[in-house]
Specification:
about 350 residues; binds adenosine-5'-triphosphate; binds magnesium ion; two-stranded antiparallel sheet; alpha/beta; single chain
Length: about 350
């Protein structure tokens, strides 16, 4: 638990003393935002330290996951099997004391397996009634593994819940709890028989996070950690209401018109009609949703790093995960073997 070094009191003492409430708004009110703000860097340091007990390396992936959670949005996660994706997300949920659920997407996954469904129940007197059985979307962090294996119908049930933060069945609307964070994984191999998410739907994910292989030193540590007698565990650093408060704060982070211009120039440079060097590689560019996303992501990154303003380096650091899934390379650049990240490098040079 992070502590205030001047008084020796826990950062969250003011919250812990309050009466427990269930309403998200009241929860946020009871959190001392200024304290959260001034100690965010320490808090993030503590989160990193806890995560490193079970996950070796992957610092960039962690930062991007934090940015996605604290901007109240969703993310795609791509990487080969066995890179610790599930373990990382599970660990984050546990550190933040959030509910966690996982769906394994397969072609026979039904929309109701995602959202939930009405079941018939009989009470003691033999009367029958309908009861809504909540599906896995009723959680705080949802890991949708191999989303491209689900059929378009089930994908759209999930995407609708993501967008509207509610599930509608017949005439009844069931609200999802906040925070609600969907992390959808895609496996870059074995594309056969899958249903890749359409571009319009991919745009709804704030970030596309790439998970890479550990280096030899990290791998040595992984083997050491997981081939021994004890399994490492983590303790809780935040609670749900803190996460909501941080989301609130992140939006309020000031950004100068200079830095905002820089973000807009980056997104503009991603469009094929532009006069930039990157334009020649592109068929389609990023939408205004990407501009909003880039600014929000940069704000959250600034907050995580304990600053009270957004710097150009925050925008720059978020450009790859915000843009890589929103630009479409043309035939010529694909032929040359360029990746979306190569084109984002060029976009950054142009901007
Ligand atoms: N960076 C890492 N730090 C710690 N453990 C790791 C790391 N990378 C892989 N592992 C270990 O590899 C194993 C597999 O991890 P996990 O199941 O989370 O992978 P995954 O990426 O979700 O795979 P899949 O795509 O098959 O679901 C775990 O036992 C985990 O401890
Ligand atoms: Mg997994």
């Amino acid at each position: 638990m992070p502590t205030d070094s001047s008084s020796g009191r826990s950062l969250w003492d003011s919250v812990d003393a309050g009466a427990p409430t269930s309403r998200a708004e009241r929860d946020v009110e009871s959190v001392d935002l200024k304290k959260v703000y001034t100690q965010m860097k320490t808090t993030y340091g503590d989160i990193k330290k806890e995560v490193s007990r079970v996950i070796v390396g992957q610092e960039d992936v962690l930062e991007q996951l934090m940015v996605a959670i604290f901007t109240d949005s969703h993310a795609l996660l791509e990487g080969f099997p066995g890179l610790g994706k599930t373990m990382l997300v599970r660990t984050i949920a546990s550190i933040m004391d959030l509910k966690f659920r996982r769906i394994q997407c397969t072609p026979d996954l039904m929309p109701s397996d995602v959202t939930g469904t009405y079941i018939v129940e009989e009470d003691a007197a033999g009367r029958k009634r309908f009861r809504f059985e909540e599906g896995p979307v009723f959680t705080n962090i949802l890991l949708a593994d191999e989303i491209n294996r689900a059929t378009p119908k089930s994908q759209s049930a999930l995407l609708e819940a993501m967008q509207e933060r509610q599930v509608t069945m017949g005439n009844t609307t069931h609200k999802l709890e906040r925070p609600f964070f969907v992390l959808a994984t895609q496996n870059p191999i074995e594309m056969e028989g899958t249903y890749p998410l359409p571009e319009a739907q991919v745009d709804r994910f704030l970030l596309k996070i790439m998970v890479g292989y550990p280096n030899i030193k990290e791998e040595d540590r992984i083997v050491e950690l997981y081939s021994g007698e004890f399994t490492p565990t983590v303790s809780k650093i935040l609670r749900r209401e803190h996460v909501l408060a941080i989301q609130d704060l992140s939006k309020k982070m000031p950004i100068s018109s200079d830095v905002r211009d820089y973000a807009l120039r980056i997104v503009a440079a991603s469009r094929p009609a532009g006069k930039n060097a990157a334009s020649q590689f592109l068929d389609y560019g990023a939408s205004p949703r990407a501009s909003i996303g880039l600014v929000l992501a940069a704000k959250a990154r600034a907050l995580l790093n304990g600053r009270n303003y957004v710097g150009k380096e925050d925008v720059k650091a978020m450009a790859h995960p915000v843009l890589r899934h929103r630009i479409i390379l043309n035939f010529e650049s694909e032929r040359k073997g360029m990746s979306p990240d190569d084109v984002v490098n060029q976009i950054l040079k142009d901007a």
